Every structure is written in C-alpha cells, then in structure tokens.
Amino acid sequence: MAYGFILPSLALIGGVMAYPMFYSFYLSFHFRILSRPRLGTPFVGLANYLEAFRDPLFLRALWQTVYFSVVSILAECVIGLGVALLLNQRFRGRNVTRGLVLLPWMLSPVVAAFTWAWLLNDAYGLVNFLLMKLGVLHGPVLWLGDVGWAMGTIIVVDVWREVPFVAVVLLAGLQSIPDELYEAARIDGATPGQSFVAVTLPLLKPSFMVALLMRTMIAIRLFELVFIMTKGGPASTTEMLATFTYKEAFIKFNMGYSAATSVIMLLLSLGISLVYIRTMGGETALR
Amino acid sequence: MTPSSRIRSLGWRTGLYGTVGLVCLLAILPIAWSLLTSFKTQQEVFSFPPTFLPERLRIENYTEIFGASQYAAFAVNSVVVASLATVGTMVLASLAGYAFSVFRFPGNATWMLLILITRMIPGIAIVIPLYIMAQRLGLFDTRLNLIILYMTTTLPLAIWLLKASFDTIPQDLLDAARIDGCGNLRTLVRVVVPVAAPGIVTTLVITFLANWNEFLLAQIFTATTASKTLPVAVGELTQHEYGIHWGNLSAMGMAIVFPTLILAVFIQRYVVSGLMAGSMK
C-alpha cells in the first residue's frame, strides 16, 4: 500500500535524476563529441579526468568556485546574523519587514543579475553615480569588466541575494532559544554582550550548520549570476565550475570531458555535504 | 524610567528603526530601480547624471515587448510549465509525504534519506545525459520535457516539507477518518490536506517560485516559441551585442517579478514560516 503512494515519486526521481547521474559517470570514462558522431563513444579510462587536472582553465574555475564560496558564505553568515538579530527585535511593522527582506532571495536570479548589471553599468549606472557623488570614487569603475573588480562584484551581488535566506534560518534558531536562558544569564550578572557569546552563539550552532550546508550546496552550483553578468570574464576571472562545464557541454559539445568535470562537481558537493552532516551529528541533523 | 535611560531607549529606538529602514531600502532598491527603468525611454535611460523618476508613466516598453508575438508565447509557456509542474509535484509529493508520514514500512527512513541526497545533486551534473536522452526521445524543446524536469527537481524538497507538515496532524483525526470508513486516498484528500493547509500553501509557493524562476534547464532544453520561457528570453536580451535596451529588458523583468511580489506581499508569512520549518530539516 505504502509503496503505491511512493512509487510515482521514486520512479520520477530515479529516471530523471538517479539514472542520468550514473549515465554521467559512464560518459566521463568515454570520449564523446556530440557534433562529431562518427568518432563514436570509445572508452578512454581516466583520460577525461587527467585532462581536467591539466587544464589551466578548469583548475582556475575550480579555485575560483572555492574562493567565491568561502568568501561569499562567510560574508552571508556575518551579515545574516546581524539581520536575524535585527528581525528578532520588537518593532512596528516587523512582519512586513520580514517579507520585504526576503524579496532578493525570492527574485528570479536572472532578473537579479541583469538588474545589478544595469545598476553597475560603468557609464550610466546608479552605483557609479552615487559613489562619485559621495566622493568615494573619482571616476567610473568598470565593475564587471575589470579583472580586479569582477569577482568581488559577483560576490557582493550574491551576498545581497542570499543574506535573506541565511537570516531567516538563523532567525528560526534565535526564536528556538528559550527566554529562561537569557533570564538565568542576567541573574548571574552577565552583560548583554556576555550572554550573546555564552548563550546565543553556542545555541545557534545547529542553525549555522544548516545554513552553511544549504549555502555551500548552492554556492558550488553558481551559474546564473555569472552567466548573465560576466559570462565568466573578463579574462576568465569569474569562470566557475558550472559555467565551465556548461560551455564545454553546450557550446563545444564535448560531452565526455564535461561529464567528467560535472562528476568532479558532484563529488565535491556530496563530499562537503557528508562532512557537514557528520559534524552536525548524523541522523539528528537530517531530521 | 530615569531620564538617562529614557534617552538611551530613545537612541536605541532611533537606531533600530534607522537600521530596519536601511535594510529594507537595500532589499528593494534594485527592484525599484528596475521598475522605474521599465517606464523610461531609451533616451532617459542613457542620461547622465541618471534621472530618478521617469518623465511620465509610459507603458510602451511593456506593449512593445508583449505586443511581439514571440514574447507573448514565452509568457504562456512560463505560466503553463510552472503551473502544471507545480500541480504535478504537489500531487506526487502529497501521496509520498502521506505514505512516509502515516505508514510504518521497511526502508521508510532509508528512502527519505536517499530522497534528501538527491537534493545535493547539482543540476549541471545531470543535464548532459538528460540532453542526450531528450534528443533521442524527441522531447527536446517541448513543454512536456520541462514539466517533467521541473517536477523531478522540486519533488525532494516538497516531499520533505509535506511529510513534516503531515507529521503534525493528530493521530486521533486519522483514526476517526478510518472508523468512518475512509480509505487512505480519501483520508488524504478529505482530512490531511485541509488540516495541513498552511504547510501545503508553503510548499506550493516554494515549488512554484522555483519553477517560475528556473533558468539553467530552460536555457539548455528550450529553443523556440514551442517551449522557451521568460527567464531564457530575458537572458537572451541581456546578451545583445549592440547595446541593451534596458527599458524593454526591465519591463520583461518586471513581468517575471510580478508574481513574486504578489506572493511576497500576500503570503510572505507562510513562506517565512515554511522556510524556517524547512531549514530545520
């Protein structure tokens, strides 16, 4: 009986996610260029993987994905904690504010990307105008076209988009801390600062782990922002694993090689998730 | 209250409301700027220093875009694909969530864990085989293909959210339905779904938004008016070699954002609470 209810879902997930995943593994050990079918699909062993780790562009994309993930997630956790603490205060219009703050996260990533590209436009963008008006900048900056700025700019836009998510997860954590603990800390003579360090932060750890896990999984896949805003440029300084794999697969139609790089991404994703889940205490974290 | 503590409290409140205002401004400024741009002519757009308000509320950017037949078709594709995929996901996830919540059967926990793990698979890691499969099955550039893909990618989270929401229904209620002679399907439809309505609305909204905003799969699997969706069309407009028509682009962006805004305003409370619940999973 139970299986009758579950089977349709399992069949779909099995056919459209699990099977292609194994197909990817299979492809990654083969040579296959879709636009040249006459070359066939010969078995090449680990050649695709060896090529990846010799390919300077792939290594660059790998390093930049790691760099992007670490910096953006760190910033999102710090700012997200601040926003969560703010939204946990009592003030008028709190519910409306919580909804408004969530907007960047609900927004279509493609729309967020071009909206920011427009704001950051070097000649007519609002950001350059305001920063020049305030005297921070003396001349316009090519935020997305300058090798020194592009990655930082992508990180800032990603932080804007994802802080709401981290903040809401941490807010849920904050609300689950019983008031009695703060009361007890106050009676013991703790200052607000001390009770923040001794009560809030340790009890927020599980929420932080959840936010870290979800954000890492999503950050590794970063695609839309880069695809719309920079296409991986300038000079490949914003190339990510996802954009690299996309170009190999759907511009060069190099299916075997791109399957290998996508498997590397998959393993990276699963590996990091397992480490987090271990640290969070296995079953309890998954519940 | 002593005078000094009153001053401190006043300072605290000013700081609090000031910070709240700043955070809200940062959250909506980019979208608001895009909305203003969508009413501007190309001339107003390319003026420096920037003009903040458009000269008048001209809707030409909207009529230009959606008067063009292909964009109307993309909009229809977006609505059809996102809605049908959401309905499909909700039906399948309700059945599965009910089974995982109500039945004790061997492998229950293992299956839930496996479903969770599928959420960790990045889309790009499965699109290459899916692309080859779609070509072979003649599904490339069809709405049906996108619907199937979206249903699958949103299923795992939907099952988890619905199971959690069904878990909160008192056992007595299910027992009463059984005594009244309800089978499982009838119990699900008549008892579980109405009682778990908040959880269902949350899951529905999160699923719909994911489908409505999806870009990577649509970019790869659609090509013509037969199935191309709005996000892909917007993506193309941003890649114009000879200057981007920011007014038109913003108008189209607003068309994508509009349902999001509606959802944010009217049912944000469900989404926030759902996210909070979902984040604990």
Could you explain how this protein is built, in words?
The complex is a heterodimer of chains A (287) and B (281). Chain A is built from 13 helices and no strands. By secondary structure, chain A is an all-alpha fold. Chain A starts with a helix and ends with a helix. Chain B has two domains: 3-37; 68-279, Orthogonal Bundle (MetI-like fold). Helices cover 77% and strands 0% of the residues of chain B. At the A-B interface, helix 1, helix 4, helix 5, helix 6 and helix 7 of A face helix 1, helix 4, helix 5, helix 6 and helix 7 of B.
What is Rg of chain B?
24 Å
Spans of chain B of 5+ residues with little confidence (pLDDT < 50)? none
CATH topology of the domain at 66-238 in chain A: MetI-like fold
- Greatest interface by residues involved: A-B, 92 and 92 residues
Order of secondary-structure elements of chain A? HHHHHHHHHHHHH
Percent of residues in beta strands of chain B: under 5%
> What is the number of independent domains of chain B?
2
Shape assignment of chain A: globular
Salient structural properties:
heterodimer; A: mainly alpha; MetI-like fold; 72% helix; 0% strand; disordered C terminus; B: 281 residues; mainly alpha
Short description:
By secondary structure, chain A is mostly helical. Chain A has helices at 2-28, 47-52, 56-87, 94-106, 109-119, 126-133, 150-175, 179-187, 192-220, 224-229, 241-250, 255-280, 283-286.
Question: What topology does this entry show?
Answer:
The complex is a heterodimer of chains A (287) and B (281).
Chain A: H1 2-28, H2 47-52, H3 56-87, H4 94-106, H5 109-119, H6 126-133, H7 150-175, H8 179-187, H9 192-220, H10 224-229, H11 241-250, H12 255-280, H13 283-286
Chain B: H1 3-37, H2 42-45, H3 60-67, H4 69-102, H5 108-118, H6 124-137, H7 143-167, H8 171-179, H9 184-195, H10 197-213, H11 216-221, H12 230-237, H13 246-279
Helix pairs in contact in B: 1-13, 3-13, 4-7, 4-10, 5-7, 7-10, 8-9, 10-13, 12-13
